[in-house]
């Protein structure tokens, strides 16, 4: 696939992986339109892209969880003669925590943005793609779309839903000349990860410490490998060697991966308990 002259619509394109995709695709000659909620971030992102890679770039303040707002923004794009050739569903939110500590509003929020946001945007652009007989839809999932782990009942559920949606969508749209890819990135150095780390359960942090080569990936590298995957029409894009191994093991072992996760979990709990015994909290006296 060539990007020069193509119209690429990116949700969540003002920050993180979405912003880096916007930069790199603009450098390849694509026309970029960004959907996100925060106007100052959108303005900064667009100014940066225009400064280094001038083109027919734009942004639209859009809450992708709001179907009506998504349809309105797509309508405004089309009124200007700007038809999306490629759509990247990159917008997402995360809120780690144990189920007993999270309210139902958080569960609905995660599904509304991470899953229904992608559905809303896909349905809004699909009529034009079907009419033209071509298009490309890329959904950014997560490692959590493969394996649910402690502290991520909200996020994992929303990403599993996105994975199922992407698999079914790929099969439905392929006969119409429309490609669908799903991306499974590992932890990526973004503002969202900074926020996530503030709430990540201590036990999951310990588990990550046990696993080699799990440092966050630079967003530049992740975006570059996603773009390379799109260029090759890869249906599954995994921007990290470690994640590729997890993907293969998960497919081979299925539920057989559970004992490994349980062993890591128990080891982490014991290490935390031992640390607390060695360094008890100050009594205040």
Overview of this protein structure:
The protein is an alpha/beta fold. It is 53% helix and 13% strand. Helix 5 links the parallel strand 5 (135-140) and strand 6. Helix 1 (16-27) crosses helix 8 (219-231) and helix 4 (104-132) runs parallel beside helix 5. The longest helix is centred in the middle third of the chain and has 29 residues, at 104-132. The chain is globular. The mean pLDDT is 92.
Low-pLDDT residue intervals, each spanning 5 or more residues = none
Largest sheet, described in full? 7 strands, parallel
Question: Which strand order does the major sheet show?
Answer: 3-2-1-4-5-6-9
- The H/E string reads EHEHEHEHEHEEHHEHEHH
**What overall form do the CA principal axes indicate?**
globular
The number of helices is 10
Rg (C-alpha, Å): 20 Å
What structural class do you assign from the helix and strand content?
alpha/beta
Arithmetic mean of pLDDT: 92
Per DSSP, what share of the residues sits in E-state strands of 2 or more residues? 5-15%
Alpha carbon gap, first and last residue: 68 Å
Helix content: 40-55%
């Amino acid at each position: 696939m060539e990007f020069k002259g193509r119209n690429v619509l990116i949700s969540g394109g003002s920050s993180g992986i979405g912003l880096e995709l916007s930069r790199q695709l603009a450098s390849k000659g694509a026309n970029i339109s960004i959907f996100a909620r925060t106007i100052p971030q959108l303005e900064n992102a667009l100014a940066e892209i225009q400064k280094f890679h001038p083109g027919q770039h734009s942004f639209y303040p859009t809450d992708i969880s709001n179907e009506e707002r998504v349809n309105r923004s797509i309508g405004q794009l089309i009124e200007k003669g700007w038809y999306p050739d490629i759509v990247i569903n990159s917008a997402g939110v995360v809120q780690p925590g144990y189920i007993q500590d999270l309210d139902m509003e958080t569960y609905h929020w995660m599904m509304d943005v991470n899953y229904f946001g992608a559905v809303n945007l896909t349905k809004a652009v699909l009529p034009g793609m079907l009419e033209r007989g071509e298009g490309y839809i890329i959904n950014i999932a997560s490692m959590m779309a493969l394996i649910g782990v402690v502290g991520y009942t909200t996020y994992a559920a929303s990403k599993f839903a996105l994975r199922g949606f992407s698999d079914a969508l790929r099969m439905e749209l392929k006969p119409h000349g429309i490609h669908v890819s799903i991306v499974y990135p590992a932890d990526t150095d973004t503002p969202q990860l900074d926020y996530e780390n503030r709430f990540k359960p201590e036990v999951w942090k310990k588990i990550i410490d046990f696993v080699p080569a799990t440092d966050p990936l630079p967003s530049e590298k992740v975006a570059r490998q996603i773009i390379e995957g799109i260029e090759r029409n890869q249906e599954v894009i995994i921007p990290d060697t470690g994640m590729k191994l997890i993907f293969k093991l998960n497919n081979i072992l299925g539920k057989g991966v559970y004992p490994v996760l349980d062993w890591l979990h128990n080891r982490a709990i014991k290490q935390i308990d031992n640390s607390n015994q060695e360094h008890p909290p100050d009594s205040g006296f």
